[in-house]
Design goal:
Elements (H helix, E strand, L loop, with lengths): L40 E5 L8 E5 L5 H15 L3 E4 L2 E5 L3 H10 L6 E2 L1
Parallel strand pairs: 1-5
Antiparallel strand pairs: 1-2, 2-4, 3-4
């Protein structure tokens, strides 16, 4: 699937309205909150994965770069593959207990297994 490219006007090509003004988007930078305040949820999922089990970590509040960094640390700790997309960290295999212990040790005190 390819993403369609949009111009800086959000896809607008032409407007016949003489009073039309392009609205500027206010892009506030999202801050990553402290690990102790993060409410992460760890769960096992097999839906739409041909019966293969993956561990999902959801609920991260912060920038995409910090989410990708956390995902990389978790995957390397488990010695497993996976990905980070749509605000979720996906780790291949059932690593719920291992991830929960790692998160607790690294300051994510409000993490829960489901």
């Amino acid at each position: 699937m390819s993403r369609k490219k949009t111009n800086s006007f959000g896809g607008l090509v032409y407007s016949t309205d003489p009073d039309f003004k392009i609205q500027e988007h206010d892009t506030a930078h999202q801050q990553t909150i402290e690990p102790a305040e993060q409410k992460l949820r760890i769960r096992l999922d097999t839906k739409h994965r041909a019966g293969k089990a993956v561990t999902l970590v959801t609920g991260f509040a912060g920038t995409d770069a910090d989410l990708a960094d956390l995902g990389k640390k978790l995957k390397s700790f488990c010695g497993s593959g996976g990905s980070v997309k749509d605000g979720e960290i996906i780790v291949q295999g059932d690593h719920r207990e291992k991830l929960f212990q790692w998160l607790q040790k690294n300051g994510y005190k409000q993490s829960k297994k489901q």
